[in-house]
Fold each of these.
Amino acid sequence: MKYEAVIGLEVHAQMLTDTKIFCGCSTKFGSEPNTQTCQICIGMPGVLPVLNKKALEFAIRTGLAMNCRISAYSRFARKNYFYPDLPKGYQISQYENPICEHGYIEIVVDEEIKKIGITRIHMEEDAGKNIQEGAGNYSFVDLNRTGVPLMEIVSEPDIRSPKEAAEYMKKLRTILRYLGVCDGNMEQGSLRCDANVSIRPIGQKEYGTRAEVKNINSFKFVEKALEYEIKRQIRVIEEGGKIIQETRLWDSNKGITESMRSKEEAHDYRYFPDPDLVPITVEQKWIDEIRASLPELPDVKRGRFVSEFGLPEYDADLLTSEKAVAEWFEETVRSGGQPKAVSNWMMGDLMRLLNEENKTIEECPLKPSQLADMLKLIDKGTISGKIAKTVFDEMYKTGKDAEAIVKEKGLIQVSDEGAIEKAIDDVIAKSPKEVERFKAGDEKLLGFFVGQVMKAMKGKANPRMLNEILKKKLT
Amino acid sequence: MELYSLGISELSRMLEKGEVSAGDITASVYKRIDAVEDKIKAYVTLTLADALKMAEEADRDITAGNKKILSGIPMAIKDNMCTRGILTTCSSKILKNFVPPYESTVTSKLIESGYVLSGKTNLDEFAMGSSTENSGFHTTRNPWDIKRIPGGSSGGSAAAVAADECIAALGSDTGGSIRQPAALCGVVGLKPTYGRVSRYGLVAFASSLDQIGPITKNVMDSAILMNIISGRDPMDSTSAPIDLPDFASVIGMDIKGMKIGIPEEYFLEGMDPEVEKAVKDAIKTFDSLGAMPVKVSLPHTGYAVAAYYVLATSEASSNLARYDGVKYGFRAEGRDLMDMYMRSRAQGFGAEVKRRIMLGTYTLSSGYYDAYYKKAQQVRTLIKNDFDNAFRNVDLILTPTSPTPAFKMGEKTDDPLQMYLADIFTISVNLAGVPGISIPCGFTSENLPVGLQLIGKHFDEETILKASYAYEQSTEWHKRKPNL
């Protein structure tokens, strides 16, 4: 029997607000434990939450970017459970009336566009962290993270393969980063992913029993964890067993998922509307303002890069995966760079150099205009493409402009016919055997002659002229 | 006349004229506390050192010509309102060592107005009860008969005002906790409209019902305190962004033509005949003042207690989850985390609090939510509609505050349901969110005070205060003092 997977993802995204969702504490990551807390996020008696308007705005921004309906009436609910990192004994979340519903995003799988439904996006507060230190029979609690605003983005069970899930996660991350609402760092936990997975025989309409896989804490594990879980479920079924509804934990060291708790052991969170927070009513005017302030989103940008700049899909996709990269590209083109050439240099040499130093495009020592100016030198024939590689590396290293480097190092291309001819004549005179073999039909030797001439001219010969003259001389 | 026996406005006048100092008043109140507190047990914590400092500051202000509205006035604060650096226990063992590092909004406003904190008063643990017998520490006695309870949960505040152990007090009211003890102690207790007064720093019992209000010796003082504590607070989303009137401005206006609704559902078969008579006499007094008593109906009254005990306990079960021994308050050692949780809560909470946590946990449980919590919310809407409908025809609604005068200690402790019914006339007001006051309207043959309740429209405390003052000025009840 052939099976297909049915996958829905629940993604938690930490919002990039300066302050927490219900108090004025900083959200900065990595501070000393319990230094970013106050009576409100610690849950002391008598304190009350007040909603951070920026968090609401970020949720609406995200909802609009993901084609959601923004609820005119929305409210917070309490999710009740006991845990030391949850100081109030409940998490303020949204349950019955989330801020965003009924959206979708598009992913590309095997060159086909596929819509993945977004069931809902809701706001909630993050919990703190329990820290295990030393061998004692106790843990420490750090409440710095308590109250950091989160969005939970819940997809429809529209995903059919681990690859689609990975594409969905990538797309989600790209959109969140475009919007500036989340930094999308899975390793640091600012983006977290839980997956609901079931399988069914191909052709069957009904869903199978699903398992929830938690703790997928890196991009590279999204596919691996799901592949494992799907295989596990197929094996259980084929061995005559039954999938049980349960929560499973992904163990990245062992590369497997393990049962954490069954449905029977699941918490009863006793959700009810939080009486400390008034219902949220969002005016259409504000929604319109937020919509108007949305940046150009990656899908639109990618399409425009194809139609406006004539880039191949592959280039457009890569260049638009990060907003800052796309902006660097456009800035370079605006400074006079020919789009495809800019794309080639960015995807090739620039990315290589940045990756070597683990730098992002924001930290790039080069200005877009510097790359554009260098490309102009190539176009004018001042330097060859080959020399440009050296110039580019030097430019990156020193921050100097291409023209200055070319002058300083005497890298200007020689387009003087006489000089090139003379160099060719010298090489031909020194290589009678090779000339003979070439004339006998060994055309591969053309490269040898080009190399020898270039060597003699320190790489500065105009390659087009060199080729033309050489061919003339040899035939 | 001893200074401690006076009210805010009289003392303010004397301070203004330089006839007394803030130090004199505080000394007088503390002399009274020394004399009667052993009998009454109104306080959980006395704050003499703070009081003296605050009185000194008040005297400095007054000398410098900067007298504030409450300069030098000693007030008692129910011990469920957070006071920075001062024990705030909620009369619970689980918070018996809790010292808040922050000040509640209401007490911040009192501080800005120059008040003197006389101490923190006793209550039923976490404000859950009608007699202070659920206090984790001790039971407060009714100043009119120390074998009887003062009512609750703000029994400490009401008894302290009645026994002149303070000039005025703040209480909190979730289902009658200001009005019922005010009635049983013969003082004035006002529960403002939900949203009128900030709850920030009030330790939550049932967040959608809790409201802070004044307990005073007379109606004028109630209006003075309302002017101070009311208003939108950016720290409390549920505080209403509504302009504030001058509550004292209506004091002394006549009430001719005012329509006062008398709901038949509040005059029950079998209610205490002396209470019934006192309230019916009060209706006659209103009539003689030119107001017009009108029959009204609040048909869903009979469901109020049931709906209240579902909603209040649901919210309480969640509000009290934070007392887990992890961060502050009482912690019992345990074998592991779960054991520590269970022992801390088992030893830290009293029986009534545990009962309500269990009830509320049950009513919110998956599978029961619709039958209990949701249904109770629907009933709440019906009760609110009852009031909206009645208020189309009348300006105020008049009822007894409590079906009985103060009962004896221990009389109802074995029967929680009987205890719950002590709030039968006050609970609907919290469910509807409307304001209500209790003012003295007579005494029983055993010399126990009887209170009447006036209920107003949303955010119309002015009409309540206007009518209350008019009634008070035409009677002598508020002038009687218990014989201690």
Amino acid sequence: MKAGLEVHQQLATGKLFCDCPAELSDDVTATAVRELRATGGENHLVDAAAAFQAARGLRYRYEAVRTSCLVELDEEPPHALNPDAVDVALTLARLLHARPLDEIEVMRKIVVDGSNTSGFQRTALVAADGYLEVSGRRHAILSICLEEDAARKIGEGSGEVTYRLDRLGIPLIEIATGPDIVTPADGREVAEEIGGLLRSTGRVRRGIGTIREDLNVSADGGTRVEIKGVQELRLIPRYLEIEESRQRALLRVRARLRDQGARAPDRPPVDARSVLHALTGPPGDLVRRGGVALALHLPGFHGCLRSLEGSEERLGRELADYARATGLKGILHSDELPGFGLTDADVASLRSLLGAGPLDAFVIAVAPDAAAADRAIRAVTLRATGALDGVPAETRDPLPDGRTRYSRPLPGRDRMYPETDVPPVPVTADRLARIEAGLPERPEAARERLTLQLGLDAERARTLVRAGEVGRLDRLVAQGHAPALVARLLVQELPEAQSTLPPEGPVIDLDEDVLGATLAAVESGTIAKEGIGPVLQRLLTGTSNVAAAVADAGLGGGDRGDLDRLVAQVVAANGDLIARRGAGAFAGLMGDVMKEARGRWDGKVISDRLRAAIERAGGQAGATA
Amino acid sequence: MADDPWERIRRLPMGRQIELLQADGRRWVGTLVPSHEFSGDRIVQLKLESGYNVGVHVNADDTVTEVGGSDANGGRPTESGAPPAPSRRPPSSDRWVALLTTGGTIASRVDYRTGGVRPVRDESEILAFYPDLEREGPVRVIPVMDRLSEDIHPDDWLALARRVFEAFGAGADGVVIAHGTDTLAFTAAALAFLLENPPGPIVLVGAQRSPDRPSSDGFSNLTNAVRLARHPDLAEVVVVMHAGLSDDRFAIHRGTQVRKMHSSRRDAFQTRNSGPLGELHEGTVRFHRPLRPKGAGPFRIAEGLDPTGGLLWFYPGLEPDRARAFAEGRRGLILAGTGLGHVSAAHLPWVRDAVARGAVIGMTTQTLGGDVDPYVYATGRELQRAGVLYLDDLLPETAYAKLLWALGRSPEPAEVARLLLEDRAGEFERRHPVEGPP
């Protein structure tokens, strides 16, 4: 199996083509409704993917937020390419040994799914032909591009999709590797290494959704397929495995189709309403209420639509996904009948209606109107025809369980043409020299320094470097905080606190002042190490400062006297237990104490005080230790 | 001396695939495409397999090799490469709309060479861009010129008026004019004065975004303009453009009352002194104000345009001598004064002298909204006494177009003045409602 990776990382600079800040927001101030047409760019050769999207006839509703401007609504020409973003891209080029262009040419990439108000994404190639060494293997880096992120999909209604403009225009660096990934675990490693280099620049946005991966996968004898938008690195191996097995399954289907003499559907669809009276469920209701039901003859496809032995993949599901992409909820196919209220007799009637032989299959599309049914049948015909060749080139959406679902056709090069509103950007020797002088520390050097000079253990040092937190650690250590504590905050407490946040919410990036204040709270004894988590959670959800977070978490203000009183209370309340168990009562009582005391005092201090108190109490009762 | 690879590349035709091997080891394989106008020296543009264009500096010690095959389209649009026009309806006696094209963004395409947009050249190109045009009935495309509207001259207004007249004469029920947005309002006003008693709608329309973009406002603007051109009750010059930032509402503006008020917004066009004449929404047309009735007299071109009329925008520091020189030799001048129609008192002498020698001077306001009024302030009274005509709420551009037309109608200053002050095409709006323009 061959796979290449495309990593997209949002940058923490301003937006790429305007002067708006790169931040997400819920403060919607205006909306506009638009339609997008399939145009041929400069060449009039309408790209298949673009035409497909435009044919859905959707309207798009765009939500502007307080930080949106006319550029994002396609009401003003783009401003010049953000020079900070270009610098970050050139830095990555250098780190990945890639060759920068002498002049950067911004292109328009037609994208008609509504996620860009102009109907295209602005993108530019910055450097090419680099490499990355991971675990002793060299991976080709094909290209480093700079492009604008798309608008954020908020919802989909009948005939309308809603997007928010806050994310549109945030700069993305796209790094594409060659098809060098041999095993699924490679994919994870390469993605993490690239992620670490990106974060080492200190100019990238953090949090869920700020980095995305696309996989380009093909099995032997298969086709290149793009899986777009994988969020979780650790699932990459699973996506690769499942895609490989999906492609293999489709090749087996192809073989069986050939054995059965299958061919492309060559008859027009037939009105099947007369046979579908007994159909259950929403499609049945639709038929009875006067909807349209078309049946399509699939010659030689019998038994090929359901899963073959040894696989969960089904051609039938692919056909259904193509129909779904035109707006239909789903289709029925003959391999799953009789069923859904239809009997053997009904199936026989359908076969007769279609003139279908024993090796033939059929598909039924039920829709509110003829146009929708027609679109679905066309899509199914396209996919069924493709099944005879094996695996079609597609863009697929990742699902949480590692499977994928058809999204749209794979776009071709016809969809790109020059963005003439933005002048080309020269990459001068001076600029490259400045980039060279400002390169971030290389991972190996950083790891060494963290262990040898700062005394961190190797594993923690590795995690810090991978997470791109070396810069922040250095600055916080320079303020006087202990390296181990800083490290714990950055790569343990902070990620844990962030993982408790809802995934779609706005990402609050805590600045170093706040992090320093949190550390200071620990150092001054206001809170214990265990209190860092609760404090961070509150800061991440909008509490304005550390003191307020500490108060809100019910921590702080605890002196030793309070602890002793608490311990005494618990001990007094459990006199019998102590009398019976002596020191053995500790485990149970520790739980009671921690309910009140967690985070306010250091865990060791608490356990010491409790043990001492139990010993004294046991002593008084005369129990043995 | 070895052949300079840059010179060699320059001699190759566009679309040729080359390999460029550079001394530092970089290697590029791509199709030659035209360079951007702002590209640096010795920068070659190549389109890679991926579709991206790259700019590479060609050094003297680089090696250029031609690689087999040409890009099917030469890496740029070929004139013959446009897809065939969609099948036309056969000519019939159906009501048809004439679409006159003058150029402008709405009928233009991206040109690599200059890095900008250029007007399209012929009917088939138009139809390739706008395949939905004939959805509600036949449309005949009549190319008149291909200018960006900043290049349009008053002589072109007259030429256009003649083509509009011919189109109605040939049986069109309505005429749509595709025009660049920059000077669209000037043309609209001029046509309103030149064309007397039009028998049907004359709809000017443009686009703020070129049609190579999926988001172009041109598609919906043009569709709605064509729809309006079939309206049986409308018989005047109007402008149709987006009413807001959404693609669902389109404003109908009287051609003599509209101005482009933003350089890039879709809803840039505004009727300044009252709301728009009407609106198109979801296929239906609604008028908010009374329409001009179909004229009692014959449809004709009220010929005449004297381009020696001028438009002068007053500003603090404008030297009276320079203004006097500007007025020299002109039979008429429109002033865009400040506020209620004022210029500095220092300009009174040349104004008086100009009027005395027979020039017709009209006053408008550069506030672009509200009336000019000579009675409220002393300056206004002085200017009126000097013979300046106060033109109520006419926009400077409308007044300018009207002046050129009036000067062309008569050599007599008194007659020119009379024509200027008379309401010819509904351009004067006596009521300014409370909910005025922004």
